[in-house]
Write a structure and sequence with these properties.
Chain lengths: ~230, ~700
């Protein structure tokens, strides 16, 4: 089923050889890649291509990857996967904070890359109609909308998935590892900074007071859980 | 002294009620006790004595410490003591001089006065004798009466010239025997017998000359006068009846004493002032020198703590200022040099890191291309297909090398951070062993885990510990020549340990330390079957150090090796020992075998592990053969002792001295091994030092 799934992928990378190779691999997996090599032109290319996913190199000429990420995120919730050579620097955290959903460290294997892309695109499968409540929020899973007092709150697909995962089992405390597996699709232990950063981003959108969260509650030393509705 | 303070608390409570007894007992020894080193602490004697001493010394300890540490106090106290000595000496000399001067004058005046008096008494007696002779025979009775009266008159008349400047006393000559009723007489209510010293009387009795002595005048209670120091001059003279009697002149020295005490008081006051002022001066002078020295010491401490921008304040051009300038210059140069070295090392680290990162983008492309080619290799001719495989394999190796290089550069940069949390080492071991199973199967090796009955929990970084153990287990399997690999776990005291034992080629003497060197290879000529990077054990060692733990190796040629990871149970707790001995119980030496694997000495120990030839003859024996026999024999026998398992004890490293002794009677080649052992011990303690230092 997965292998037949089509997806448009925008590759933002200045290294032409790598971009071309990415194109070969992505086409081989049935994706439709488009390319842009310059950070300044990335936004225009994004608007033109309307991709389902963006592969973004952090180090770009012109506007750097972080800035591009922020601009894209400002007008779209489309999944963004960063390509980075440095996994242990602040770049990763800054990238995640500026809106990237996931990152992948060079050098990666083609299969790994495809798995990451698929994990981000998987949620576009048809979900069953489902209504969830968390705190004073009402979530329409099929309609992909979150409302507070009838007011719609805009979330990226990843943030929406995170919220739904917590809301489906409000009695359960989710460790970061479990969330990584359920929301990001990681099989093995991965970077828990992903969870921390995205919980912060989610809170800044859904909490009345992000300093005192009521929707996504931290359970010290364990992880997160949904707040009481 | 530390011994004292450690034992004092329980001892003191018990000793309190006994203390008076102790004092009494100690009384005779008290002098020796003080001499014998109250402060040296070298007292031997009864325990009570020692307790008392300890009790006395205890409050002195802070004072002694202050004395040792404070040069200002030392100089001031020394100055005070020395100036006190000088002043006292001076005082005694001056007072002696003054007293002699005063007394000399007094004695001369008194002597002339007394001489005059004695002459007058003699003349008086002669006149009286002439008078009685003129009277004729007035009868003895009358004469006696006369003499008594005469004597009273004499005393009155003699003393009347003195006006309190002297008193006159007459005493009967005891030598004469016949007192004739002539009792002692004295002027000024002086008690005659008490005021004239006995020895003077005796001398006057036996001689006719003039004698003098010092005494105290004792007055009759009705006089209401205190006894006074005095000079007494006496002579034996005759009364009108020509009977001898003693006549004394007593010159009170009140005036002289007053003058002397005035001089004494003045001197004492002056001396006190001098001492105090000298002390103050010493304090001031020393302060001038000590203050900059203290400042320098403080700044040197701050410099050594890493605050390189600290400098001394320099004023003036004196020696102290020169010290300050030199100090500042030193600090300046130090800072410059350190800065240069830091820059250099930062540049180098940055270069390594940049190179690693820059390589990644092209490597990613190559990697993907290789994978695409590898996927399609079935369509190629055999040569190209094999090339594609080699390409993909070597890219894996290249990648892991790059990752290791980056990891090492991270350690070198001090950028490695420990994310410690309580973990159960059994979980980690299980993951590692299951990860190594495929390789072990290929090699025909069985990995056994022992000591995992109870949780082995320690505060550690699971990712790093897993990396270390994976490295050790994979190495053991690779070099184990298809024989068993045993992973032991144990915990005791504040430490947990995992030891990985293999029965492969082992390590040659001296290799136990070198295995941790970067890019070190056991045998450069040996073919590498799997693509290790040569950095694995270096990274493992750094990981262990980051935990404050030890990673140590033991091995004997042909007898296999054991790598032991010891971690403190809680982070930041220094390690003192390891629950697992570094040399396994089933090592050749412990089984009493020599290098060739033959029993040495009495030979009653059965070589249950099959004889293994040393490294270069390995091919003689089929490798799979030994496994079943070992299962039946040695391992179960050796394990319970090597493995504390439940409530283990910390096994101290055997002292190398003891080992040596063992080796003297040992097999040939033991010399070599013992030197290796010694080197190993040195290294392990070095690791310990290094990890403690952190």
């Amino acid at each position: 089923m997965m292998s037949f799934m089509k997806g448009r992928v925008l590759v933002v990378d200045d290294d032409t050889a790598l971009a071309e190779m990415l194109g070969i691999v992505l086409r081989g997996e049935g994706f439709e890649p488009s390319f842009v090599a310059d950070g300044d032109k990335a936004l225009a290319a994004f608007r033109e291509a309307k991709p389902d996913l963006v592969l973004l190199d952090l180090m770009l000429p012109g506007r750097d990857g972080i800035e591009v990420c922020r601009l894209i995120r400002a007008e779209s919730g489309v999944p963004i996967v960063m390509l980075t050579a440095k996994s242990d620097t602040v770049d990763v955290v800054v990238g995640l904070e500026s809106g990237a959903d996931d990152y992948i460290v060079k050098p990666f294997k083609p299969k790994e890359l495809v798995a990451r892309i698929r994990a981000r695109l998987r949620r576009s499968e048809e979900p069953a109609p489902e209504q969830l409540a968390i705190g004073d929020l009402v979530i329409d899973v099929a309609g992909h909308s979150v409302k507070r007092d009838g007011q719609s709150i805009a979330l990226t697909p990843l943030e929406f998935d995170l919220l739904v995962a917590l809301a489906r089992k409000p009695w359960q405390v989710f460790t970061r590892e479990v969330l990584l597996e359920q929301v990001w699709g990681y099989r093995h232990a991965a970077d828990t900074r992903l969870v921390n950063v995205h919980v912060q981003r989610l809170r800044s959108k859904v909490e009345k007071d992000p300093e005192r969260p009521e929707i996504v509650v931290t359970v010290r030393g364990v992880g997160y859980k949904a707040g009481p509705s | 002294m530390s011994r004292d303070s450690a034992a004092a608390a329980p001892g003191r409570t018990g000793a309190r009620p006994e203390r008076p007894v102790g004092r009494k007992k100690a009384g005779s020894r008290w002098g020796r006790f003080l001499e014998g080193g109250l402060l040296q602490g070298g007292v031997q004697g009864s325990p009570v004595l020692r307790l008392v001493l300890r009790w006395v010394r205890r409050p002195l300890l802070p004072v002694m410490r202050l004395w040792r540490r404070n040069i200002q106090l030392k100089v001031v106290v020394t100055t005070l003591l020395m100036s006190l000595g000088v002043v006292l000496l001076l005082g005694f000399v001056v007072i002696g001089q003054v007293r002699n001067g005063l007394l000399d004058a007094k004695v001369k005046a008194s002597q002339s006065q007394a001489t005059g008096g004695f002459a007058a008494a003699k003349q008086n007696a002669d006149e009286a004798a002439a008078g009685t002779a003129d009277d004729g025979a007035a009868g003895d009775e009358h004469a006696e009466q006369n003499v008594i009266q005469w004597m009273s008159d004499l005393v009155t008349s003699l003393s009347s010239g003195g006006q309190g400047a002297f008193e006159v006393v007459t005493l009967p000559a005891s030598a004469g025997g016949d007192t004739g009723g002539r009792g002692p007489r004295a002027s000024g209510r002086v008690i005659p017998t008490d005021s004239v010293p006995e020895d003077l009387r005796e001398r006057i009795d036996s001689n006719t000359g003039v004698f003098q002595s010092y005494t105290r005048i004792v007055y009759h209670p009705t006089a209401h006068k205190d006894p006074q120091p005095a000079l007494v001059i006496g002579k034996q003279v005759n009364d009108p009846n020509n009977n001898p009697y003693q006549l004394y002149y007593l010159f009170p020295l009140t005036q002289e004493e007053k003058s002397l005490s005035l001089v004494k008081g003045t001197l004492a006051t002056a001396g006190l002032f001098v001492v105090v002022l000298l002390g103050a001066i010493a304090w001031l002078v020393v302060r001038q020198v000590v203050t900059p020295v203290r400042m320098a010491a403080g700044i040197a401490e701050r410099l050594s703590a890493g605050r390189l921008q600290e400098r001394m304040k320099v004023t003036g051009e004196d020696d102290i200022a020169r010290l300050g300038e030199a100090f500042n210059k030193m600090a300046q140069n130090l800072q410059l040099k350190i800065q240069q070295l830091e820059d250099l090392s930062r540049m180098q680290r940055r270069f390594v890191s940049d190179v690693s990162h820059e390589l990644r983008t092209p490597l990613t492309t190559v990697r993907m291309a290789a994978d695409v080619i590898h996927e399609a290799r079935e369509d190629f001719d055999p040569v190209t297909a094999r090339s594609a495989e080699l390409l993909a394999d070597q890219l894996d190796r290249f990648e892991s090398l790059l990752a290791d290089l980056l990891e090492i550069s991270r350690f070198d940069a001090g950028a490695a951070a420990l994310e410690a949390e309580p973990i159960d080492l059994r979980e980690v071991v299980r993951r590692v062993v299951s990860g190594a199973e495929p390789l072990a199967e290929r090699k025909g090796t069985q990995i056994r885990v022992v000591g995992d009955q109870q949780p082995i929990v320690a505060e550690a970084d699971a990712r790093r510990v897993e990396r270390v153990l994976r490295n050790l287990v994979v190495n053991a399997v690779e070099h184990g020549e298809g024989k068993d690999v045993v992973v032991k776990l144990a915990s005791a005291g504040g430490a947990v340990a995992v030891a990985v034992r293999d029965y492969g080629v082992g390590l040659k003497p001296g290799e136990a330390t070198r295995v941790f060197s970067r890019f070190w290879r056991a045998d450069p000529a040996r073919a590498r079957t799997t693509g290790g990077t040569g950095l694995g054990l270096s990274i493992a060692l750094e990981d262990a150090r980051l935990h404050g733990g030890w990673l140590q190796a033991w091995g004997e040629p042909g007898g296999g090796s054991q790598f032991r990871l010891t971690l403190p149970r809680t982070a930041d707790e220094p390690l003192r020992g390891s629950p697992i001995p570094l040399e396994p119980k089933d090592s050749r030496r412990n089984r009493g075998l020599n290098d060739a694997g033959l029993p040495s000495g009495g030979g009653e120990k059965v070589a249950t592990v099959p004889a293994q030839t040393s490294g270069d003859q390995v091919s003689v024996m089929p490798t799979r053969d030994p496994i079943p026999s070992r299962h039946g024999g040695a391992v179960p026998k050796a394990d319970p002792t090597a493995l504390p398992g439940n409530g283990a004890r910390v096994v101290p490293r055997p002292a190398s001295g003891a080992r040596r002794q063992e080796d003297i009677a040992g097999p040939p080649g033991a010399e070599e091994r013992s030197s290796e052992e010694a080197g190993q011990d040195g290294e392990s303690s070095k690791h310990g030092e290094a990890s403690r230092g952190r």
